Amino acid sequence: MQQDTYTGGSNPVKGFLSYFYGNFIVLILGFIQTPLITRILPTDEYGRTGMFETAVSIIYIFAILGLDQSYMRYYYVKDIDRVALIKKCLAPALIIVTGLSGLYVFFSDAVNGFLFERSGSGVVILVVAYTYICVFERFIFLDVRMDQNGKLYSNINIIEKVLSIVTLIGAYFIIGDDFRIGLLALVVPWGCTTLFLAVRYLVKHRDYRRSPDSYVPTYRELISYGLPLITVLLMEWALSSADKLALRTFSDFNELGIYNSAMKIIVLLLTFKNTFIAYWSPVAMERFEKSEMEENKDFFGRVYEAVVFLCVLLSVFMILFRKVIVLLLGPDYRMAEAVLPFLTLMPVFAMMFEVTNQSIKYTKKGIYLNIASIAAIIVNVSGNIALVPRLGGLGAAITTGVSYMAYFAIGSYFAEKCIRIGYNYRKTAIYALLLTAFCLEASFVNSVPADTLSGLMILCIAVIMDRKVIVRLVSYAKNIFKK
Known about the structure:
By secondary structure, the chain is an all-alpha fold. The protein has one domain. Helices cover about 85% and strands about 0% of the residues. The two termini are about 15 Å apart. The relative contact order is 0.12.
């Protein structure tokens, strides 16, 4: 059992590392791409690029119907027909995205005028193409994750990022410092990798014949599970887009560009979160399906303790070294260093919630995620209205960080009602208070000595409170190197 302390499977370390190496390389490439695009594009043009992802996201949310979550939930059910399952999940999404894309095309002048202050057939084509790609990519890539094929997952991520950098440079030489080069750097790489994965999937299942004894959920089952989770997706959209919309409404594209650059740095930090989620979600579902509940309580508790400790370290170091990171962006983006601290709370609490919310997903109590999402949306919208007119990007960052904390707190409370694991929330609350105080100091005082003193104090407290976790992690690391 000692080998199975933090993850599942026969060789959990090898499994996780197969996911991590790709995202680590993507992280390194991201530190090349982000400064590249911020030095190519003025702040106002970069602000328009951020609005593109906002437009696509809202179409995608209503098109997907939460069926990606249904696919994950039923993937490990006994005797499931996985080919029929992905077809049933993908078909409604494609029908809906066609209708929503049609509405967007019809009202494109008005929509693009608000989002970009630019329009034209080229922008419309990029938005529609990217939306379709997002739908296909979500399910095809999800199949790779659920199959726990970490090596392919990593390689595809690396290829996508390399193609993005190449496209960015090539588009710059063709159309100059126009925000559309950021759009092309998203559409072209994702289109290429999604096409490859789709062809691979078809070849893999070319001899598919449905077994008469196989099980396939009905559309009613799939939609009844996935549809309530749209609220969760809306929450994620609100937390990633409402800030940009507020800045677009109450500020200007320059402020939006600075904020978007800070968010891109956080996206690099989200690489660690995405690595964990890519591996953890399938493992957690398989664990609930195949292991005894008492054994799972110890397993999930230990995973949570390790994740919380590592997240605190990651946030502290990100805040301490933010000035060095911001130097890479260029002189026009120096203001981003005040925005960064509160944004680090986003991946921290999102990753922690990925551990606790598995209880809600497994028990099919999506209503609890909806309640947490609605509460987070209310906090987010209220905070943006109150703070963005006064503090600009910093106000949006504070709102985003606090919203994720609220989402974690409320969602985790309900998760314990579904399956009582017994997570150590008291210690989590202490860390939350310490990190919030550190973010306030870093954003408003912005003093290197004060930053250093605050960061070291939190690190010392973390080492004392989580000394047992450190011992387990060190022991586990030694076992890795011995192998």
